[in-house]
Protein: Putative competence-damage inducible protein
Amino acid sequence: MNVSIIAVGTELLFGQTVNTNATYISNQLNLMGFNVMYHHVVGDNSGRLKALIISTFVESDMIILTGGLGPTQDDLTKEIVAEAMGVDLYFDERCYREVKSYFDDRNRIMAENNRKQAYIPVGAEVFHNEAGTAPAFGIEKDGKCAICLPGPPREMKWLFENCVVDYLKRFSSKQMYYRVIRTIGIGESDLETKLLPIIDNQKDPTIATYAKEGECTLRVASQRETMTEAQLAVENMIREIDKLIGKYIYSYNDEELAEVVVRKLRENKLSLSSAESCTGGMFASCITDVPGASNVFSHGFVTYSETAKAGVLGVDSKIIEECSVVSSEVAVLMAKGAQKSSNSDIAISITGYAGPEADEGRENGNAFIGYACGNKLGNKSGFIEINTKRNDRKWNRNFFKLRMLLVVYNIINDAI
Amino acid sequence: MNVSIIAVGTELLFGQTVNTNATYISNQLNLMGFNVMYHHVVGDNSGRLKALIISTFVESDMIILTGGLGPTQDDLTKEIVAEAMGVDLYFDERCYREVKSYFDDRNRIMAENNRKQAYIPVGAEVFHNEAGTAPAFGIEKDGKCAICLPGPPREMKWLFENCVVDYLKRFSSKQMYYRVIRTIGIGESDLETKLLPIIDNQKDPTIATYAKEGECTLRVASQRETMTEAQLAVENMIREIDKLIGKYIYSYNDEELAEVVVRKLRENKLSLSSAESCTGGMFASCITDVPGASNVFSHGFVTYSETAKAGVLGVDSKIIEECSVVSSEVAVLMAKGAQKSSNSDIAISITGYAGPEADEGRENGNAFIGYACGNKLGNKSGFIEINTKRNDRKWNRNFFKLRMLLVVYNIINDAI
Structure:
């Protein structure tokens, strides 16, 4: 079944509000096996809204509208939907009582214009709104269906979960299942090239790739008669994908790399510490962003100056002078210092040039990641060098952070 | 001039990505005096995209498209725009060299399908993309204009700021000037109430308020015949605003609070250090995100465990036991430890519960920010307590970070 989403509201066209409702509803619809055709946004303008509804019904069997159900003059979604579908509005006593008691319960006086909210298109199924005053509804006529929901995301979600999901079940025949796989260390086009043998001529499951900064995500989705069939098709496809690009995959369940690292540290009863120069706390911050990180991460050092590297981590000033502060030697000594001070199983460090101004003769995007492990991991230590060739400070810092996570991930997996 | 925005990408219809590009572009277009008519989202489907472009041009003079400019098979925006406007594509040598050098500079092999990105519609003005590989462009024909931009928000914004704004100026008769004022410590509705006398009946300059998490932003914009008139109108309005809410304003130039703090530290030749528990490096990270932070910030400590607080910062374990680890006493001792170890002029610390699970009898969102100053600032020390009453870990961590910045800001301004 083809569904389109129309958001009504001039604030969206002004760029004041992001249309997160369309994202939420699309996600829900896809999970239920509906095919989302278009998102449209239109202002509070009756002529344009009516024309848009009529033209959208040409290709779509259903339209879900959000916004414009409030009590004010420019809230006109309900009236226009009724007009476009050729039905009248009637005054619904129960809706009126609900709107009124919403105000009574809060010891507030109901404004006269709230009466407007109790008018409902003839033949509509009302979704009684416990999260606000706008009654929502679904209406079917001549093989087309319109669902009207309020704009505030909290109200809209409440109605979707509590009323719309049940209402939609009557329209759905197929079941949808999908998994999101996350990779690192391979670009989007290389990934696609490697997957070409299974992407080409593939109808179901579908495989979609998305590039994120420094990472790449794959979505494998199947729509079948039963959920069991859909799951089986996705799982089989994931096994094929695994054969081709398995070594780049760090999550089969749409997890962030930091989440995976924290989970694996916990599973392996390993502790972690960090010593950061150019990332300045970003690594520690992304690890501690994961609930439960306190079980595996206790110490982080941000040693931005040479004095801090020497004073806090005990890096020999002579080596800083001889090898330069951005060097593999200093990176390793920083990691060793953090490891010693925290007595952690793994210590990870970084020193580098994020930009905008590298030292003379050096390039932005050049960094050294050091690591040093405790007894449990054989006291091994080492480094990797990075050259992003970019001047973009934010981009570099984020990339450096991801590579630090990758080094920790590889140490846990005994791949370093 | 009427403009519509079309975002191309099945991931948007799957609900995997939020269409923040449309919001950003709408905001920019409104500032420049363009009238945004519609936002549309369509999947990677050539037939639908072509029909949508043609029907959108009925009411709109210009379409800005985002997405579908990549190297893969389903990237088809450029081809369809050329088709809809009735022009051919040609192979652009300069674009090809730029795409190729993008890979060469990173010591990466260019995949064969990246060649596709160098084809450009005949008659288009190319926007040379320094933020990625997708060449963007604007094309005018028969009184209609199409602008094609890549989908990744970072690339899109770079191109918009560096190329599209200039390109758009030829379509605009009026001159636009605006300033963005940033405030902290006051909610959006309180801010609006205080500004009511000047917001009411105000046509130009316009004043728009936007709430961000923990902060509030004001945009003052004027559109006049000349730039001088527009600037004068905005500056006069800012003086009025200053009289009403001056004490909440920390930037008149849309700076981040961290930028202002780093700038003021530099101006006052003051150094800063940090000791973080629940924010886990976020504070250090946002300070070091500002270019030039190395002049004022040398030491950051992430002491997530009690052992780290005692071992690294010298917080007396007995006091942790007596007062609890989340207490004003521990916050102040953490700041004193960081100040001593780094010999900085200002040390700031935090200990608290971000969520999801506070210790028994304590609430998520409760935190203590401590500070300790060196000789230059009279060795003063102290703390503030925060209670957000929220369980949201991400929200709390961000709010805590902003409050730490505010405390440092107030210390520099001698307001603490």
